[in-house]
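Observation: inputs received (chain + C2R).
Thought: call the complex predictor directly.
Action: predict_structure
Action Input:
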Amino acid sequence: MIPKVMIILGSASDKAVAEKTTDILEKLEIPYSLKVASAHRTHELVKQLVIKGTEAGVEVFIGIAGLSAHLPGVISSYTFRPVIGVPVEGKLDGLDALYSIVQMPYPTPVASVGIDRGENAGILAGQILSINDSEIKERINILRKEYSNKVISSNEKDLDEFNGENHVKDFLQMEELDLDDSEYIDDSIEEDLEVGIIVGNHQDLAIAKKVEIVLERLKMTSNIRILCPIRFPKAFEQYVDSMPEVKLFIGVSSQSTQVTGALTSLTSKPVIGVPCSTALNINDSLFSMVSMPPGMPVGTVGIDNGKNAAFLAAEILALSNPEKINILKKVKSKKINV
Ligand code: C2R
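Observation:
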């Protein structure tokens, strides 16, 4: 059987993080292959695994590594399949691995998840595959319900010890709330739209435009909307729901990156995030975008690197449209200048 996902660990010492990924892939019933290979210590092995794996039909690669985690980037350099990177905490609280994974130059994107967030890598891989597989999509939705049910049941299970005299315990019990979040569908947006780009505010529009320009050159349909989910929560929700045909979303945002956070809670489709720098701080958007809790992945690219987000989106869409790979090859060999 050809595995759909290949997971490569930089070392057997990353096993605990990899287990989180394989647990999810087991739940989603997605066949995977698991290897240990280091871009530093066994470069040729990584190269062979990725090239032969791609030729055989592996659709998504996951690189798990700590320290100077060059492994996911090296995987990306040998394939046009989407690559997800999981930074492992070692020294420097895992920031060494996070930066090494996320800050890839164009056009060699890696979608980074948070430090040690192996489960989010598994879910993101599942979301990517679910674009062309309704059974995986169904299983992703069940998994998302498990994560939300855990929160909901905590209200009954975990708050018992709060017995203060002023705690109004019976206020708004779970059964009094309307928690049905089944998807609202409106057919107001053109059917052939492939990518929805949402940008949090005007200040980040220049980066979103880069995403759009590269998507256009890569022959993908997209549209940009400036919409802030904190200032306009209802409009944001309606806008996301109004695009049932969109295959994936790209959120562009600075500061506390509510755009991508809100997107993952409203859709089970893949969400790619571009953290934007501001004059005062470069790191806040990266950290708040990538460090999503278990169950809610945002495949984060490097700071201000809208072009890599577009390239990654094309790699994802090329899974069902191999002709797109020819365009990606031309871009990489600079026959098309974007
Ligand atoms: P050892 O425990 O084998 O010394 O590895 C591994 O992923 C691991 O987290 C320590 C750490 O080194 C990482 N490593 C990389 C690469 N190869 C190994 N980051 C690589 O090629 O990027």
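Thought: report the result.
Final Answer: The beta strands are 5-9, 32-36, 60-66, 83-88, 111-112, 195-199, 222-226, 248-254, 271-276, 299-300. The first strand starts at residue 5 and ends at 9.
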